[in-house]
Amino acid sequence: MLRLSTAVFDDLVAHARQEVPLEACGYIGVRESTGVEAIRLTNIDHSPEHFSFDPAEQFAAVRTLRAQGLAASVVYHSHPATPARPSEEDHRLARDPSTIYCILSLAGPSPDIKAFRVENGRLAAVRLEIDT
Ligand SMILES: [Zn+2]
Question: How many A from CA of 5 to the centre of ligand 1?
Answer without folding.
Answer: 22
